Amino acid sequence: MSAKIIDGKQIAADIREELKTTVAGLKEKGIVPGLGVILVGADPASQSYVTAKERACENIGIYSDDNRLSAETSQEELLALVDKMNNDPKINGILVQLPLPKQIDEATVLLAIDPEKDVDGFHPMNVGKMMVGEDTFLPCTPHGIVQMLARSGVETSGAHVVVIGRSNIVGKPVANMLLQKKEGANATVTLCHTRTKDVGHFTRQADIIIAASGWPNTVTADMVKEGAVVIDVGVNRVDDPSRERGYRLVGDVDFDAVKEKASMITPVPGGVGPMTITMLLYNTVESAKRANGMD
């Protein structure tokens, strides 16, 4: 029997409806959550992503301050804009879209963002708080994954989770979040990466597999035990002459084969992707509540 599909679009839509209600309540108290967005350059993928964030803000009633800068923008100019947003009470969250042009050091820019407005959850102070289990802004994609598991009724306590990929954006934080001593976590976590010998040895023991390697078909059917839950974070372009655009999007998992063994699985697209922007909105609303002493 094929796996149940974990519908990220629907889960994201449910959370956005909850946020819409929360934002409406805040507005009744004179509070309008605000997100400051900075895009440097004209990378098509980044432009598309930022546009989607702008629409999402409008949909739930968040104020969006959008700043699209030329690719020639200097680091000093960008830091000045970040500083302005740090001191703007209308802005509760600051998002600097990555990647940045070569002349700008990403680490310097991320450090310049006020940790209280770091709704991406990338500032080292917030990463440190996450590591020790303190309340903080959680990185959006990992937080989205944890929400998907919880809202799909997947039991993580005592489960063996295998994460494939050790990026600072997905792999490391989701592994850390799932091993915390708290509800929706309490898992035994194995983290695999490019130097892991025989990844399949570990994935065949997993109750939950989170694939974030960035390569198509990293996880094949022979690597998955019957009844496992499979979360596919990857978004990869593969050539497909039958499509008008000449390619199609696939994840890191061999979906068609693995869905015949898994109990639950996320599709690509329509799985983890919609959750990332949704959790950015969540963090922005939480930041507005904290700034007004409501947390």
Question: Can you describe what's shown?
Answer:
- There is one protein chain.
- This protein folds into two domains: about 30-115, Rossmann fold; about 140-275, NAD(P)-binding Rossmann-like Domain (Rossmann fold), CATH 3.40.50.
- It has ten helices and eleven strands.
- The chain has helices spanning about 10-30, 45-60, 75-85, 105-110, 125-130, 140-150, 170-180, 200-205, 255-260, 275-290, and strands spanning about 5, 35-40, 65-70, 95, 160-165, 190, 210, 230, 235-240, 245-250, 265.
- It has a six-stranded parallel beta sheet with strand order 1-11-8-7-5-6. A three-stranded parallel beta sheet has the order 3-2-4, sandwiched between helices. Strands 9-10 form a two-stranded antiparallel sheet.
- Helix 1 runs parallel beside helix 10, helix 6 (about 140-150) packs across helix 7 and helix 6 (about 140-150) packs across helix 10.
- The protein is globular, with a radius of gyration of 19 Å.
* Content-based structural category: alpha/beta
CATH architecture of the largest domain: 3-Layer(aba) Sandwich
Number of helices: 10
Oligomer: single chain
Rg on CA atoms, Å:
19 Å
What integer is the average pLDDT?
95
The main pleated sheet reads as:
6 strands, parallel
CATH topology of the largest domain: Rossmann fold
The SSE string, one letter per element, is EHEHEHEHHHEHEHEEEEHEH
Please give the CATH class of the largest domain.
Alpha Beta
Strand order of the largest sheet: 1-11-8-7-5-6
| Count of the separate structural domains | 2
Question: Alpha-carbon distance between the termini?
Answer: 45 Å
Percent helix range: 25-40%
Q: Strand share of the residues? A: 15-25%
